[in-house]
Amino acid sequence: MADTGSGNTNNDQAPPTPPPPPQSVMGFMLSNKVEAGLWLTRLFTVICTFFFFIPIIGSGPHGFYQRALISNAATSALRLHQRIPNFQLNMAFLKMLMLEDSCHYLFFSLIFLNSYPITMALMPVFLFALLHACNYTKNVLNIMGPTFLQFVRNLIQKLQSQQVSVLRFVACTEIFIMPTIVFMMFTGRCSLFLPIIYYRFLTLRYSSRRNPYCRTLFSEMRMTVEYLTNKPQCPTILRTLCNKCIALIYRLAPQM
After folding, report:
1. How many Å apart are CA 22 and CA 53, to the nearest integer?
2. pLDDT tens string 182-205
3. pTM
4. In the chain, what are the domain boundaries?
5. Is 83 exposed, middle or buried (0-12, 13-18, 19+ CB in 10 A)?
6. At a CB cut-off of 8 Å and minimum separation 6, what does 180 contact?
7. pLDDT digits (tens, 9 = 90+) for 204-236
8. How far apart are CA 185 and CA 205, in angstroms?
9. Of the chain's two ends, which shows fewer C-beta atoms within 10 Å, N or C?
């Protein structure tokens, strides 16, 4: 007699698993609140910088200048919490904190928050916020639809393709803020302490582990100046002055 029970094995398979429901933007943001917070603060920095340069709303650009720096400080604090979540009150933790680029730009925001508005000071803040918001923005656009705001996707792609150029420009801005605030000190628009404090920030950027562009730009500028001053057409007094400036900057640079 045949076993009739064995003939139903192919019919007892489990039903196929239904595809997961499409994720909403709010659900995506709530799944990682820190990343969502970083994205929002970076977008707010970009918006405030835009309204500082083009003051079409509000009472004046100074308020947007301060809001951009406060928003950047919030971004840096969130990023620090993400990188080093366990706070400790000791020298080893402080040294580890000072190695983080987020700590450098938290320091940067506090330096310029209550100073005379310096347009150059917003450029690194704006460009870092814009560059770092790109990946999260693409994820949000993908949830909204594969073709949603295609022109924004194209702009993001072009910006990311120029990432090295953007980072080099940021490093160049960081360097040239120093002579700007020295000039402002002599014109009475900032205190004597601002160049001293900013020098400390610049040494942190020079010794950054994650971003070598400040060191690279210093080295390239030194080689360019030495090349130009070694030409026979260069006046001796100018060559001597440039060599003394290079020697001074070399002594002030932190040991790597």
Report:
1. 39
2. 998 888 888 888 999 999 999 999
3. 0.83
4. 29-210, 212-256
5. middle
6. 118, 120
7. 999 888 888 999 999 999 999 989 888 888 888
8. 22
9. N
